[in-house]
User: What shape does this take?
Amino acid sequence: MTYQNGATLPESTTDVDDENHTQEVRQWTIKNLDIDVVEKSRMAAKKRGMKIGAWVAASLKRAAELELYSDPSPGNNSLSADIEEIVNRIEEIRREDIAFRQNIQSDLLQLVKGQHGILTEMLSRNHPMEANVARNTGDDYRVGAVKGRTQFQHDNGDWQKRDERTGHFMERKSSEGPFKGVAKEPDGRDTKNS
Assistant: This one.
């Protein structure tokens, strides 16, 4: 895939360099660049805080000077060293990006957990009766009675629960003692039918 739009500089103008020498700037269009080259160039220019045209001009100038004035002998590998440095920097940026994304994901997870806690607190304030529902404490006792259930003792000593509304038998307890928090029959605690 190639990039068909031309990268252009402004019409021919004069520019002043650091030593107050004027130099002419001309428009130049580069066609058929691979889209990957264009995108990486834009990212590199943005990283350096430069406009794309200025970054491309500086990069072309460096590459041209390297080609024109470097030692062409086989022992001189400055271009390959530059390429290796660029590849290493790209890898470093990729690792930083992965770490940055992981940090964002971790922060978002903590934020969601915090929001869940806040919402739970708000709901318990808006519905104070729901905070006092019958529940197991986790310390081998229960707060509040189980609604809609009764229990009775069989002749052999086992306790069994019964659904108060339908009359269906439910679980049977073979260990000692009755179910905790369940009304015993007949005590009239839940309904007239118990």
